[in-house]
């Protein structure tokens, strides 16, 4: 029995040596660890890539790459002029509007002006083929009380009078613009089916993290405040909204709904002459199945 015990110990040592140090220290559930570390500032999906190469800053509820740690300006310039450069703009907030086209256009006309350029009702934008940009103002207050610049895109028509519009805003402007949109469309009532639940790591994920942290006692789960550690949340948009709050509102009179889709839709910017080639090589058209 002693020989068998020695043999088992020897086998365990051999198995542990086969894995590299990085593999041995890796957490069981990377997603749980990823969520666990986002206590105050949410990470973009490209966070780890940026964190290894950039000086990170905390702004608008996010942890963002500010400046590169190495001199990569020439490489970026070369990519923009000859190849393709990708930027992660997922920290921009997306506000979704759903409802009848004429109702949407009627109220949206109150917060913009044709004097500043093409607006939401321009035919090329309404078709959904192009993205538009304009400045928004408080309702009926142009040229005073500007809210800020936004970009927008309509979902292409499907034969119905109901349309879908996505408005992209900077996180610093989201609260003001969302408040104005809710006011002009009278969307005060939360949609019952769209009330978000507090998004925390699941019990199973938490247990897995605890198991890994207990091995070797190399990490503590508590932060500096010990037992007062903040529970893991999915922070949406600019990071100020409590997860118990609703993220979708509806107007009972017109049926128009406004939803905060921040951090649900990723947004990337491709710059350079080979951008189109990269997209065509990367994206494949899905086969549409009709029942």
TrEMBL record:
Transmembrane portions of the chain: none
Q: Name one Pfam family in it.
A: POP1_N
Q: Pop1 N-terminal domain: from which residue to which, for each copy?
A: 4-99
One Gene Ontology BP term is: tRNA 5'-leader removal
**Top-level taxon of origin:** Eukaryota
Q: Which GO terms describe its cellular component?
A: nucleolar ribonuclease P complex; ribonuclease MRP complex
Q: Which protein are we looking at?
A: POP1 protein
Q: Which gene encodes it?
A: Pop1
